[in-house]
């Protein structure tokens, strides 16, 4: 974990907000621009875990891959006594580009130039996914960085399924450590997710409806052995982006 001192040489400017974070531009007196990424307290209920894993993953990819990810200059968790922001945050490089355009409706009369651009984007995304899949680990979990700068697989944190909504994050926190990972097999991960689904359903629904939903999840959990690919059940496990959608992709035109 690292911290950075930002003073009168830096000013916060434009901002944008996503589902889990708000991002500010930090403009320095020499016109260098960094980005500050801060979890939204009303949507991200595991801000420290998500921030630590996100910073570690970016640093891992920056060090070991050719994927164009932003450099992480500093990050700090809210519980750190030196944190004066009173929130977890990441300070990172601002990458060039703009959000990937969204095609609102399909048309038979498609501009050939648009098709060529779409083909190029898909080819590059394929290259990114293949490179992510080239990094293999012996456990399922989320990357962490220890004080010596080594990367390790820690407990499984998925912000899309455990940080929102709040009752699901609460259910995750109540899980036994055994069901948080890291996991050595796909079966262990399926079992842990089934346990999380049961707890989250009971917390979110009334007793009668909760019992019905829990029964459905138990049926699904009993089928997990039927969808396992035996040769991959115990790894190796690869890096994966759980939210690789248009709002998380920059392009340069």
TrEMBL record:
<dbReference type="Pfam" id="PF01636">
    <property type="entry name" value="APH"/>
</dbReference>
<dbReference type="InterPro" id="IPR011009">
    <property type="entry name" value="Kinase-like_dom_sf"/>
</dbReference>
<protein>
    <recommendedName>
        <fullName>Aminoglycoside phosphotransferase domain-containing protein</fullName>
    </recommendedName>
</protein>
<feature type="domain" description="Aminoglycoside phosphotransferase">
    <location>
        <begin position="34"/>
        <end position="252"/>
    </location>
</feature>
<dbReference type="InterPro" id="IPR051678">
    <property type="entry name" value="AGP_Transferase"/>
</dbReference>
<dbReference type="InterPro" id="IPR002575">
    <property type="entry name" value="Aminoglycoside_PTrfase"/>
</dbReference>
């Amino acid at each position: 974990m690292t911290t950075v001192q930002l003073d009168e040489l830096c000013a916060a400017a434009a901002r944008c907000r996503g589902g889990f974070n708000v991002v500010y531009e930090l403009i320095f007196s020499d016109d260098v621009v960094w980005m500050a990424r801060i979890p939204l307290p009303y949507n991200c209920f595991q801000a420290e875990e998500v921030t630590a894993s996100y910073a570690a993953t970016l640093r891992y990819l920056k060090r070991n891959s050719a994927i164009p990810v932003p450099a992480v200059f500093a990050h700090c968790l809210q519980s750190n006594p030196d944190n004066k922001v009173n929130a977890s945050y990441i300070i990172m490089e601002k990458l060039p580009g703009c959000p990937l355009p969204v095609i609102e409706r399909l048309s038979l009369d498609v501009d050939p130039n648009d098709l060529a651009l779409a083909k190029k984007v898909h080819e590059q995304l394929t290259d990114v996914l293949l490179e992510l899949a080239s990094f293999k680990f012996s456990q399922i979990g989320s990357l962490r960085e220890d004080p010596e700068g080594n990367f390790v697989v820690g407990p499984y944190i998925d912000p899309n399924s455990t940080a929102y909504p709040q009752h699901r994050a609460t259910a995750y926190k109540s899980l036994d450590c055994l069901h948080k990972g890291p996991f050595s097999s796909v079966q262990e991960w399926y079992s842990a997710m089934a346990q999380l689904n049961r707890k989250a359903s009971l917390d979110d629904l009334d007793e009668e409806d909760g019992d019905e939903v829990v029964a459905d999840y138990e049926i699904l959990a009993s089928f997990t052995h039927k969808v396992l690919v035996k040769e991959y059940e115990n790894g190796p496990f690869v890096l994966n982006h759980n939210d690789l959608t248009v709002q998380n992709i920059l392009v340069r035109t």
